[in-house]
Amino acid sequence: MPQFNTVGIIAKQGDPEKVVGTLLHLVTYLRSRRLHVRLDAESAHLLGAEVGAAVPVAQLGAGCDLVIVVGGDGTLLHAARMMAAYGVPLVGINLGRLGFLVDVSPQDIESALDPILAGEYQSDRRAMLSVRVIAEDGLERSYSALNDVVIHKWNTARMIELEMDINGVFVSAQRSDGLIIATPTGSTAYALSGGGPLVDPALDALLLVPICPHDLSNRPLVVPGDRRIEVRVRGLDQGHVQVTCDGQADLQLPPRATIEVVRHPHFAHLLHPRGHDHYQILRAKLGWGGHMPPLVT
């Protein structure tokens, strides 16, 4: 009996010319393997499926053995947040640019997915973040992220002032453009451009990367993954701060609110083709090059 019987598809939004051809190819391939295919709203719309064919995200999570994401890393980040609570594994078909998370090329659909559907793959569980924004009156709002939670200024040219505690212990105060709290997966995203380190995704860690700090001694900090990070905004900048999760979900921070970030109770479950090599991807995407040529004596 095959390991996967029902496969969901989540498609990138807003780029139909690039997505439709790959979607058609993928759906035809899956049905030729006698698999039941369920489409999210964007996939159903792009394929011109009949009314009612689209499956709500919650039903995709509850009813699918596998979800295939057609798009770039941003689409997979969205899918990972939606699917984490269901434990559904994700495979990414890369229509984007960098593709650190989506590693199957559209032209390799058959050769890459055949082994995966037969149970030959590398399983990769990635830590996520859970963030609570606690207002002064006690009202809470909760979000999740796979890459990062960013506390940043908006609508102002001024720096903002932040205080940070780790497990209830005061660590630092900073004047900066903001703070990136990232997972190891997110170390190749915004945190990298902020001067943060590259961290192997298998490590249990959190990255704390200041954005353009005024004090140049305020450097990125790596802490164990089970730490609780609390951030408060000081001074007159209360109305000029946002919290953004994975570059997609934004919230204007209420005055005198506290941001609490901890490791999410669920993981993003990614499947890669056999032979997947994280460091080869880093070499290719970051332009590190290959082996050095031998010395000529």
Automatic annotation (TrEMBL):
Gene Ontology BP annotations: NAD+ metabolic process; NADP+ biosynthetic process
Catalytic residues, chain numbering: 73
SUPFAM superfamilies named in the record: NAD kinase/diacylglycerol kinase-like
Cofactor dependence: a divalent metal cation
GO MF annotation list: ATP binding; metal ion binding; NAD binding; NAD+ kinase activity
GO annotation, cellular component aspect: cytoplasm
Keyword tags: ATP-binding, Cytoplasm, Kinase, NAD, NADP, Nucleotide-binding, Transferase
UniProt keyword Nucleus, yes or no: no
Domain of life: Bacteria
Reactions that this protein is recorded to catalyse: NAD(+) + ATP = ADP + NADP(+) + H(+)
Signal peptide range in chain numbering: none
E.C. numbers: 2.7.1.23
Localisation per UniProt entry: Cytoplasm
Positions of NAD(+) binding: 73-74, 78, 147-148, 158, 175, 177, 188-193, 248
Sequence similarity: Belongs to the NAD kinase family.
PANTHER family: NAD KINASE
Function comment: Involved in the regulation of the intracellular balance of NAD and NADP, and is a key enzyme in the biosynthesis of NADP. Catalyzes specifically the phosphorylation on 2'-hydroxyl of the adenosine moiety of NAD to yield NADP.
HAMAP family the record matches: NAD_kinase
Protein name per Swiss-Prot or TrEMBL: NAD kinase
Organism of provenance: Thiocapsa rosea
Gene (name only): nadK
